[in-house]
């Protein structure tokens, strides 16, 4: 059902400086950058490795674009650091329904738009041992690919 670590989401105050840290320290390069208005973030995806389900694992660097967004609230409370983990699946709606059936609160009534044309949904951190958890169906995960 869940076949890879799709990404680790990291909250930062300055996306460009954080991108520079990951490039200069580890040699990781930005694969993709976008603004997700709905999620209230400007983000950079750094592809780290491919995975044996045909997908890939990324770091997702997140800078808030408004004060009333989840990442802005997280930064105000905790400062910079790991914000969430994301598991990849070929069927995000099915995976969310299955996990929801085990008593974990699914935060989105239906999947929303994520990075690079993906479909995403979040699980409540209080039902996941304190870990905000995201489920991701990459654009190329779906049927017909
Ligand atoms: N990880 C772990 N715990 C978290 C958390 C996080 N990222 N964010 C909040 N919490 C905890 C808080 O510490 C708090 O715990 P206590 O009650 O023990 O103090 C509790 O959750 C509620 O905190 P809050 O300040 O009321 O938090 P919010 O109003 O921001 O709601 C959450 C929390 C998870 C429902 C909200 O952040 C959310 O809906 N997140 C999903 C969307 C998202 O994070 N988008 C950005 C990423 C986009 C992407 O990946 O593409
Ligand atoms: Co994410």
TrEMBL record:
Q: Which GO terms describe its molecular function?
A: metal ion binding; methylmalonyl-CoA epimerase activity
A Pfam family reported for this protein in Swiss-Prot or TrEMBL: Glyoxalase_4
Q: What EC number(s) has UniProt assigned to this enzyme?
A: 5.1.99.1
Q: What class of enzyme is it?
A: isomerase
Q: Which UniProt keywords apply?
A: Isomerase, Metal-binding
Q: Which PROSITE patterns match?
A: VOC
Answer whether the UniProt record assigns the keyword Metal-binding to this protein: yes
* Alphabetical list of InterPro entries matching this protein: Glyas_Bleomycin-R_OHBP_Dase, MeMalonyl-CoA_epimerase, MMCE/EMCE_epimerase, VOC_core
Biological processes, Gene Ontology terms: L-methylmalonyl-CoA metabolic process
- Name the SUPFAM superfamilies on file: Glyoxalase/Bleomycin resistance protein/Dihydroxybiphenyl dioxygenase
Concerning NCBIfam families, the annotation shows:
metmalonyl_epim
Regarding protein family, the annotation reads: Belongs to the methylmalonyl-CoA epimerase family.
Output this protein's name.
Methylmalonyl-CoA epimerase
Q: Which organism is it from?
A: Thermobifida halotolerans
Q: What gene does the UniProt entry assign to this protein?
A: mce
């Amino acid at each position: 059902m869940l076949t890879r670590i799709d990404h680790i989401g990291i909250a930062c105050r300055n996306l460009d400086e954080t991108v520079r840290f990951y490039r200069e320290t580890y040699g990781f390069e930005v694969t993709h950058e976008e603004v997700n208005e709905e999620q209230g973030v400007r983000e950079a995806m750094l592809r780290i490795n491919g995975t044996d389900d045909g997908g890939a694992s990324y770091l997702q660097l997140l800078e808030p674009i408004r004060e009333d967004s989840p990442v802005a609230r997280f930064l105000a409370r905790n400062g910079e650091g790991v914000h969430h983990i994301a598991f990849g699946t070929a069927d995000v709606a099915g995976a969310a329904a299955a996990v929801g059936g085990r008593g974990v609160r699914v935060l989105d009534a239906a999947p929303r738009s994520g990075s690079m044309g993906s479909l995403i949904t979040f699980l409540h951190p209080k039902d996941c041992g304190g870990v905000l958890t995201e489920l991701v169906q990459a654009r190329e995960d779906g049927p017909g690919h």
